[in-house]
Amino acid sequence: MNPLEHAAGLPDWAALVVSFFLVVGAGLTLIGTVGFTYLQTFYERIHAVTLGTSWGTGGIVMASMIFFTVLSSRPVVHEILIGIFVTVTTPVTLMLLARAALHRDRSEGNPEVPSEEAVEANAVDGPPTVSE
Amino acid sequence: MSHTILAWSITIAEILLVIAMALAALRMFRGSRAQDRVLALDTLYVNSMLLLMVFGIGTGKVIYFEASLVIGMLGFVATVALAKFLMRGEVIE
């Protein structure tokens, strides 16, 4: 292993905390991507990706902030820009993508997705109740 | 001792993220539909952004942070444009 010369001034507790956040962030990103690869339908897959953009990004951003703050003994918080940016943009992209996929499925007449009429009837009358 | 743990965990995090990128690339090639490929490209962007941040910790240089910020912004714009294209058939109407 390379001994990380630039991190020689890092105290032991900071090294352990940074290691923890790095492995947790990268591991959760990998779990999310495994789910993305092996889940069956698109609407299931779109959930799995958010593991990497929430805790994956959060863990690695946290590790980077702790590392550079402790190493240079002044607050280094510019990594939080990435955290804020990813948190704001991920719902926007995934909503757009899910709506585009729903539009494509409906225009093909795919029976797996609810039709627009069924959704509107559900909104007016409430969910269909099981009668008899 | 704890610095050895830090070096090992940086290497482990890099390996995990590279495996995640390989899985996303696999889904992008296998696809089945266009929206799966777009989502795989978005995942690939996010994973490479995180990998560059881990490189930044491993080398102690700030330049990697700027690179990952640029990747994040371009990835957002690319995914929005592709989703718009899937929805409408054109990007700018």
From the structure above, extract its key features.
heterodimer; A: 132 residues; mainly alpha; elongated; B: 93 residues; Helix Hairpins
Through-space gap between termini of chain B: 60 Å
State the largest interface.
A-B, 57 and 55 residues
Mind summarizing the main beta sheet of chain A? Answer: none
Radius of gyration of chain A: 22 Å
Backbone structural class of chain B: mainly alpha
Mean model confidence by pLDDT of chain A: 84
CATH fold-level name of chain B: Helix Hairpins
Q: Which overall shape of chain B is indicated by the principal axes computed on the Cα atoms?
A: elongated
| Relative strand content of chain A | under 5%
Whole-angstrom Rg of chain B: 16 Å
User: What's the CATH first level of chain B?
Assistant: Mainly Alpha
**Total beta strands of chain A:** 0
The percentage helix of chain A is over 70%
Order of helices and strands of chain A: HHHHH
Give the CA-CA distance, first to last residue of chain A: 70 Å
- In the CATH hierarchy, what is the architecture of chain B at level 2? Orthogonal Bundle
Largest sheet of chain B: none
Describe this structure in words.
With 132 residues, chain A is mainly alpha-helical. Chain A has one domain (12-116). Chain A contains 5 helices and no strands. Chain A is elongated and about 65 Å long. The mean pLDDT of chain A is 84. Chain B has a single domain (2-88), classed as Helix Hairpins. Chain B has 3 helices and no strands. Classes of the chains: A mainly alpha (132), B mainly alpha (93).
